[in-house]
Amino acid sequence: MPGLKTIIALSFVLAVGFLLVILSCALWNQYYPLLVVATYVIAPLPNWICSRCSNPDDFDSSGTAVLDLGRFCTGFFVLMGIALPVVLAHSALITTGAMVMSIAGGLLIYGTIISFGMFFQEESDF
What's the predicted TM-score (pTM) here? Predict the structure, then answer.
């Protein structure tokens, strides 16, 4: 069971991630990098929804297609969170500095969301 130090450390990393994304917007007066926050917040949802819909007690492989769909959608959103700032920088809508800060902040945000899920998931004993 994770303790208070884990919660504080993950909260600090999440705050640094949000700070990087907000600074990537505010320093250059371009607010397109805020779209990265939306993609990283939405990213774990397909995996969570599809894991709830599949039945792990089945012996056949019918539930694995739903899990694979959730993993594919989650991977798509994570890749979109990295590729979106690159495309915006390539089209000159944001600067390269904003792109780097946005990608770094987005990865910190997504990593923290995944870490919270790993540390605080309930283990069921049968």
Answer: 0.83
